[in-house]
Amino acid sequence: MTTARPTPAQMPRRAPSDLARALTDPAPPQTHQPYRALYEQAVMGTSMTPHSKFVGIALATHADASGQIPEGRQPRLLGLIHETGLHVGQVVVALNTLKQRGWIRQVQPTAPYDT
Fold first, then answer.
1. What's the total number of domains in the chain?
2. Residue 107: which pLDDT band, with cuts at 50, 70 and 90?
């Protein structure tokens, strides 16, 4: 006569070990990592087109550590065209894609892209 082997669901629950608990507990938020670095990592990990990623990274080079682009360092459309080497239409589509997906925000949403 054979005995059926118990399944994991039938096994009694036990408390996780200290090591397992330390590995599975959520990590504390890292406040020392700049927002700009997180933004760049996140943009590169998206499924957006390469042009959109390229324009997103080009915008990030103008931002400070908090992710804001100061008024005097705004690249404007012509600046992004020169920095990326893309055509006007490609940059405009990339900016619209980044804006629609929440990656960038215009301070004056009604203002057109200045050249």
1. 1
2. confident
Say yes or no to pLDDT of 111 above 80. Answer: no
Does the residue 28 lie in any domain? Answer: no
Domain membership flag for residue 77: yes
CA distances 105 to 25, 68, 70, Å, are: 34, 10, 13
Q: Which domain holds residue 76?
A: 35-100
In this structure, is residue 61 part of a structural domain? Answer: yes
Tokens 């020169």, residue located: 82
